[in-house]
Amino acid sequence: MRLLVVEDNKDLAAWLGKALRQAQYAIDIAHDGEDAEHMLKVAEYSAMILDLALPKLDGLTLLKRLRQSGSKLPVIILTANASLDGRVAGLDSGADDYLAKPFEIAELEARIRAVVRRGQDRASSEITVGDLLFSGGTRQFFVAGEPLQLTPREYAVLEQLVMKLGTTVSKTALSESVFGFDDEADPSAIEIYIHRLRKKLENSSVQIATLRGLGYLLRHVQ
């Protein structure tokens, strides 16, 4: 799952990026509204964490433009302005949630899960494929009732396959879900993660099929 963090305080942005990557998210960071607007046009995100006091283009204007474009991207506002008027302005501009600084990372993670669940119907419940179960609420995988141990990038690949269940997912789409703009992405990396996932799923009743020239498909095998 890929998130966009828009925060002009570079120390706070770096801390957020590190904490959210440890929570198995792919993270891109923008330090001003103009860069964020460009990134929203060229990449697909599951949610945006948005500061309001931004240089070049302020957060509320960015959010209004995003909603005017028809985007339903979940947005959580982060701001030092915890007043009622500030919260109302943010929510009226199209924000899905509002979190005042300072905050605990655990609360931000919970709010991310909540807005993504509301934005994606599949993420609001458990998804089962054979004996593989994905819990949208806890973002955990289980095989035959046992937790499946995955690295963050293995997790990101499998999560994307589960969320696109029934459709073929291209290597490009998987790469975008795993790597942020600042990551060094080896073109063969997705093949490596797919190989590792297949090894971890080899005793289950699910399979990651390769459709040559199209991508990968998660399916139940008898």
From TrEMBL:
PANTHER family: REGULATOR OF RPOS (PTHR48111), TRANSCRIPTIONAL REGULATORY PROTEIN TCTD (PTHR48111:SF67). Residues 124-220 form the OmpR/PhoB-type domain. This is Response regulator. The keyword Calcium does not apply. Residues 2-116 form the Response regulatory domain. GO terms for biological process: regulation of DNA-templated transcription. Residues 124-220 bind DNA. InterPro entries: CheY-like_superfamily, OmpR/PhoB-type_DNA-bd, Sig_transdc_resp-reg_receiver, WalR-like, WH-like_DNA-bd_sf. It comes from Rhizobium phaseoli. GO terms for molecular function: phosphorelay response regulator activity; transcription cis-regulatory region binding. Keywords: DNA-binding, Phosphoprotein, Plasmid, Transcription, Transcription regulation, Two-component regulatory system.
